[in-house]
Each structure stands twice: as structure tokens, then as C-alpha cells.
Specification:
about 15% strand, eight-stranded mixed sheet, globular, about 325 residues, alpha/beta, 10 strands, two-stranded antiparallel ribbon, single chain
């Protein structure tokens, strides 16, 4: 029997992910953490801490996972809020559905640390994770066998999706080739003055507003930077979009930013890349994080898990392990 949805409860909670001109940054961060943090992680997921490239990270490990698969999750929060604590519950569900470890970096936030601080931190994390996974793959390969490449997945939501794309724009093709999948949830792809959030007088979006985008972007960077690809991925040039890793975008049909996602998908496909846009009827910004209110949240993450765990032939990956292999880390814990 399907559960009864509480849409009003979901909207009230998800609005805590947004930051506007009336918000105090410290109060915003505190309320966000309080609303989304949990005392016990679901499904038997275990949490450890580790430094990757000098950045403190959460590592979430489900009871069963593919040993060669790891996800880096770049949280949203309008560039000014969000934390591993606030995203542990959501990312634990992702870890379970995708049968992989999930790494959540505690990157620097605006306005204390504006653009490009977050991008620099995520780049450091990626380099360290990539190197460690390469070493683990070689250590766990029998002599004479071909070394299996690690499956690296990079995911992000809202403003975190902007940071995610900036990371990819900065990567050489040989590193891009090692990324199995990019997952974008309700992405911020256009922070410029042309954004529909800023140009449309009447907005039907129940969570996002023009004030939210304006405050988040102004704390993050100067207005003249909002049309550069590293801030607004929709403005990426041809060379930045060529040889892009496969992209899966998931969002609600009620989101005003949906048109930006459609335009980004079309540009990626136009340059020969794979991109699937998964739109959920009547759903709202980051509905996946309101699973106690919306049944569709569970179904949406089921679909994400299927995208990640199936190979190109449609068969599930089978390299199963228990607990992460971090004993060969190149970096010393703080």
C-alpha cells in the first residue's frame, strides 16, 4: 500500500536548504544541520572520517558494496551552508542503493571562502581519492591480470552541482575517462541575470526563489563571474563539454530550473555525450531529501541505484566487499 504523502511537510523541510536575503548565515547553517542530521544512520551504514588532500571527509560504508566503486558527494546549500552531518542520512541511502562507499567532503563555504575555494577543495579530494583507488586496484589484482579501473562516481545537488561541473571542466580527458557516472540532483546550472528565477515575475516553484539564487550567488562570487562556466555550467564552451562523463540528472517537474537542465542536457548530447534527464511529475526541488514525507523519494533513489549498479550491458556489477580499504592511504589523517 502506498504511503500518504505530506507535501506541505516536505516543502517546509526543503525550504531549509535555501538561503535568502533575510537569512543570517550562521543561523541558516545551524537550522539546516538540525533539520537534516540524524543520530543513527539507516540500513546499517557505518561512518568513518578521513583526510583526502588535506580536506576532512566523511566516509559512509554500507554493509555490502562493490570494492572498486566509490562516490564523491558534493553537497548543496546555496554555497553558504550544508555539511557532511546534514547529508549523512541522504548519502547513506545513496550508499545502500548504489552498493558503494560515499565520501562527503567538508569543503570551505561562502561568504568566508568565496569562489573558487570550494572548487579547489573538491579538486584536492578528487586527486587523493583517484590516486588511492588506483593503488588499491593494483594491490588487489592478481599477478598477470589486467588491473581493473576503479569506478568513480561524482554526485552533487543544487549549488554543489555547479562545483561538480567546475571540477570536470578542469580535468584532463584521461581522468574524465575514469569517472563512471555524474549524478546531478536539482542542479544550479545558471546563476546569471538571465536565470528564470530572476527574470520571471511569477514563479510557481514552491521551494526556490529569485532571492535565494541572488543571495547564494552574491555571497559566492562577483556578479561579473556569474556567466563563466566554472560558476554557471550552462555557459560552458565546446572544449569543456567534449568527452564529458555520462550524466544522470534527476529533478522535479515543478522546478523552475528544469529548463536549464534541459538546455544543459541538449548541449551535452550535441557534443556526443550521454545524458539522461529524469523528471518526476509534481515533484519539487530536492524532493529526494524528504523521504519521510514523499513516497516518490524512495522510488527516485531506487532508480539512481539502478543507473549506477548496472553496466552498459544491463547487468549488475558483482565485485562485492565488506568495509572500506583505507589502510593504504597516501595521506595521513589529521
Amino acid at each position: 500500500m502506498a504511503m500518504n504523502n505530506d507535501r506541505k511537510g516536505a516543502i517546509k523541510k526543503l525550504r531549509l536548504l535555501t538561503y535568502n536575503s533575510k537569512s543570517n548565515v550562521e543561523a541558516f547553517r545551524k537550522k539546516l544541520d538540525e533539520a537534516f542530521s540524524v543520530a543513527i544512520l539507516p540500513n546499517g551504514v557505518e561512518r568513518t572520517e578521513h583526510n583526502y588532500g588535506g580536506i576532512k571527509c566523511d566516509i559512509l560504508s554500507p554493509e555490502i558494496y562493490a570494492s572498486n566503486r566509490v562516490m564523491i558527494y558534493i553537497h548543496g546549500g546555496c554555497f553558504a551552508g550544508g555539511s557532511p552531518a546534514a547529508y549523512r542520512n541522504f548519502c547513506s541511502s545513496l550508499a545502500t542503493k548504489c552498493f558503494c562507499r560515499v565520501i562527503i567532503p567538508e569543503f570551505r563555504l561562502a561568504p568566508e571562502h568565496p569562489y573558487p575555494a570550494a572548487i579547489e577543495d573538491i579538486q584536492s579530494v578528487f586527486r587523493a581519492v583517484f590516486t588511492e583507488e588506483q593503488i588499491n586496484s593494483s594491490l588487489n589484482t592478481e599477478k598477470g591480470e589486467k588491473i581493473a579501473l576503479p569506478e568513480i562516481i561524482i554526485a552533487g545537488d543544487g549549488s554543489g552541482a555547479s562545483v561538480l561541473c567546475a571540477l570536470i571542466f578542469n580535468l584532463r580527458d584521461r581522468y574524465r575517462a575514469c569517472i563512471k557516472q555524474l549524478l546531478l540532483f536539482s542542479p544550479w546550472l545558471n546563476l546569471s541575470q538571465d536565470s528564470k528565477l530572476l527574470t520571471q515575475r511569477k514563479i510557481s516553484d514552491e521551494v526556490m526563489t529569485g532571492d535565494v539564487l541572488r543571495r547564494g550567488s552574491s555571497d559566492y562570487t562577483f556578479s561579473q563571474n556569474t556567466t563563466i562556466p566554472f560558476v554557471s555550467p550552462l555557459f560552458a564552451e565546446e572544449e569543456q563539454l567534449k568527452h564529458f562523463p555520462p550524466v544522470f540528472i534527476q529533478m522535479g517537474k515543478k522546478e523552475i530550473l528544469l529548463d536549464d537542465a534541459k538546455a544543459f542536457r541538449n548541449r551535452l548530447i550535441g557534443y556526443g555525450n550521454k545524458c539522461e534527464l529524469d523528471v518526476w511529475d509534481d515533484m519539487i526541488f530536492m524532493f529526494q531529501m524528504a523521504d519521510e514525507f514523499l513516497y516518490e523519494s524512495h522510488l527516485a533513489l531506487d532508480k539512481v541505484g539502478k543507473i549506477v549498479t548496472e553496466d552498459e550491458a544491463g547487468k549488475e556489477a558483482v565485485q562485492i566487499e565488506n568495509k572500506p580499504k583505507l589502510e593504504h592511504s597516501l595521506f595521513v589523517d589529521a
